[in-house]
Amino acid sequence: MIASSLPPGDSPRLVLVPATPAERLECTKLNSVAWKGPLDLESYIAREDHLLAQQLTGDGQTCWILVDGTQPAGARTILGACESYKKKALLAYAGQVEDIATHGVGSVYCRPEFRGKGYANRMIQELSVKLETWQLEEERRTRSVFSVLFSDIGKKFYAQHGWKPFPSSHIALPSLGGSDEEDGAAAGLPSARDLSAEDVKESMCSDAVFRKARESLRAASERTPHQAKIAIAPDYDHFVWHWAREEFYAEKLFPHSGPPLVKGAGEDRARVYCAWTRVFGETPEENTLYILRWIYDEPASPAQAQMTAQAMAAVLRRAQRQAHKWDMRHVEFWNPTPLMLQAVALLDPDAKVVHREKSSIASLKWDGAKQGLGNEVEWVWNEKYAWC
Ligand SMILES: CC(C)(COP(=O)(O)OP(=O)(O)OC[C@H]1O[C@@H](n2cnc3c(N)ncnc32)[C@H](O)[C@@H]1OP(=O)(O)O)[C@@H](O)C(=O)NCCC(=O)NCCS
């Protein structure tokens, strides 16, 4: 289709449909320009296929394309594309916790020569309608309660379509060479240990941990019964999905280093644990070790708070050292709690919380009001693991 014959963004001929496998491949090739980073095209396609094969979304990943509905499948011009990922989620309302399904949205893309014609606007408008019922036929709730995305184009565009910005802050610490023994600052901290994938599973994803998390959600919901609370289920599959990505990059970029086996750190006495992933950017400057999720008990006394903050600081120190080993410049984690800030202050009193305005804006579309779940919603565990 030549540019002059393109339909306008509000044309009734435009439809949003799931892509065929060949069209999905075409989308990957098109958006590679924006997202392949340090990979070559072939490796980028292989990365996308590798992620598609992960357990996290199973058959629940859909590549959507905006096309002229009068063109036949197989010969349609892709005017815009995006993906949705069905995920497990939790809903707490009026003191009850429910397992529900949700969708994450990502890979929103329009090729440069078709931009500025309203295709992204139309695509997201259509998607918002599709996701109200998409893949929910077999769920107890057959209509969407909420969906999420992480905007890299600021806070305005997606908000117009219902995905409102939620807390999107982070704190970053530099990577650090050396060892705990040489480090005077770390000397006063308890000793944390590295976590393997199996350790993360055991300490952060056990039935007991999930029961406790669910109970804390229920108790919070009882305290504010008319404010719905939602969370993306922080299950092991999420971590594995992020690790599949980091391992893919590590193999391509550091073929002689072996896979990154240290997947987090923990301090057993205070029961503070975190899982992380390494994100390789276009340049090493952008390489960042992201903490995907924290687990810790809410302290019941100032003395316990002190102990927990120290354990967190020790865990963060391990993250800084691990980042250094993998040529990462920073350790970053999202939406720090006051306790985490206390921990950071033990390591770097000058570290500041950054409130993002443009990239990775956690955005949530709340459909619960139509289902009698009120107008207000809190996003619980709004951490990096939920990113897609
Ligand atoms: C973002 C993108 C999909 C927009 O496509 P498009 O077809 O040009 O968008 P539209 O013509 O429908 O314009 C949609 C709106 O988004 C705004 N917009 C477009 N690109 C933007 C950007 N980089 N930052 C902020 N707003 C942007 C437009 O100004 C327009 O606003 P309006 O509705 O108030 O007029 C396209 O620029 C793209 O593919 N960029 C590279 C990949 C990317 O960044 N994707 C988004 C990931 S969250």
UniProtKB/TrEMBL annotation:
Residues 92-164 form the N-acetyltransferase domain. One of its GO terms (molecular function) is acyltransferase activity, transferring groups other than amino-acyl groups. Pfam families: Acetyltransf_7 (PF13508), GNAT_LYC1-like (PF22998). Residues 187-388 form the LYC1 C-terminal domain. This is N-acetyltransferase domain-containing protein. It comes from Penicilliopsis zonata CBS 506.65. The lineage of its organism: Eukaryota, Fungi, Dikarya, Ascomycota, Pezizomycotina.
